[in-house]
Write a sequence for this structure.
DNA sequence: ATTCCACCGGAATAGCGGGATA
DNA sequence: TATCCCGCTATTCCGGTGGAAT
């Protein structure tokens, strides 16, 4: 069934990108000055999940590096959300972290190091709206040879959340909007992966269309469903992905994506999540009492509020109402 | 209308872990 | 070894908000 599992993984970066020519051109145009040794415009990619933002950003970096001597670094601000961690990651990109330690290195030596590095540098900041303190963007603006490529779901929402000084800088960067994939586009993407990763005839066009349709424009879900379906078919000793396998694979793929997020929660946060799951819907008072009774040394109410806010940010939970009447419930997959 | 109360979330602070320094 | 510094999490403090009770 499967000949190459890698091409079905999220991280896989295809050599050719389908149905995103306009976006790729826009990025290339924005970064063009780098080829002539001049500072380039910053770029902002935005659009819903699974529309190829990250993929196209990584692809563009590969292309750029083939044409010019330029350093690039990818930072996912979901994982590296503090100023320090972002700067540290960016230093890794130019190999200047050797004697950096989080203690005893004077406060802004990281920024100085990036500044001192010669040559153009493109910093890709994915999930940039997850930064706890976006002022690191301002730090980077002060360095002429650094170009920032930001990625987020909601461009306007992000602009509104930063202070005026930063906002005025951000509004001048080139913004590129990504629309959800059409069913045809998703089928084309899936066909590519099938050709490289599965035996011929392992799956019919009809089943690919079914997957593409259920994915609702989200390539990540579509590829995940294909992966799950291929594995299931293999486990069951089938030589073809059947309609039944596809039907099961779609919800499983969404679950897999969710459980990836759940893995990043702490033990206490997980307890809290379980409580919300059991109650279906719960107000904060009940939530805290329940939590208090289940855990050895409970955190304070304030900390729990932070946990809840975090899980809402992560799209795990949904909050309803403000102030006194607020309640929390699980956020179901699929916006 | 007014008061009350549960809850929200910003800001400042404390405490911890861990590496550096003297 | 004792001490310092830093990042990071949790805690403390508190003003603000909106629904419920009076």
């Amino acid at each position: 069934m499967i000949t190459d599992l890698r091409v079905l993984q999220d991280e896989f970066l295809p050599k050719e990108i389908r149905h995103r020519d306009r976006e790729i051109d826009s990025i290339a145009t924005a970064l063009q000055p780098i080829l002539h040794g001049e500072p380039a415009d910053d770029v902002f990619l935005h659009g819903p999940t699974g529309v190829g933002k990250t993929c196209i950003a990584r692809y563009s970096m590969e292309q750029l590096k083939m044409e010019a001597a330029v350093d690039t670094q990818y930072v996912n601000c979901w994982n590296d959300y503090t100023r320090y961690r972002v700067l540290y990651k960016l230093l890794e990109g130019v190999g200047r972290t050797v004697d950096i330690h989080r203690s005893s290195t004077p406060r802004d030596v990281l920024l100085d190091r990036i500044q001192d590095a010669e040559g153009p540098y493109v910093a890709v900041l994915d999930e940039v709206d997850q930064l706890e303190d976006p002022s690191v963007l301002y730090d980077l603006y002060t360095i002429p040879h650094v170009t920032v490529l930001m990625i987020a779901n909601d461009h306007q929402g992000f602009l509104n959340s930063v202070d005026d000084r930063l906002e005025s800088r951000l509004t001048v960067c080139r913004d590129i909007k990504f629309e959800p994939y059409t069913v045809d586009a998703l089928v084309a993407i899936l066909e590519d992966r099938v050709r490289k990763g599965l035996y011929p005839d392992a799956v019919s066009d009809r089943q690919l269309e079914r997957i593409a349709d259920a994915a609702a424009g989200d390539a990540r879900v579509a590829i995940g469903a294909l992966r799950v379906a291929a594995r299931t078919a293999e486990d069951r000793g089938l030589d073809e992905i059947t309609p039944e396998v596809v039907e099961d694979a779609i919800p499983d793929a969404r679950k897999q994506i969710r459980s990836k997020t759940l893995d990043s929660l702490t033990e206490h946060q997980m307890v809290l999540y379980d409580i919300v799951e059991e109650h279906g819907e719960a107000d904060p008072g009940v939530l805290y009492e329940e939590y208090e009774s289940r855990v050895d040394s409970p955190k304070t109410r304030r900390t729990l509020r932070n946990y809840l806010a975090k899980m809402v940010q992560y799209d795990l939970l949904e909050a309803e109402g403000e102030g006194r009447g607020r309640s929390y419930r699980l956020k179901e997959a699929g916006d």
About this structure: The longest strand of chain A covers residues 146-152. The radius of gyration of chain A is 22 Å. Chain A has a mean pLDDT of 92. Chain A has three domains: 20-177, 181-260, 265-330.
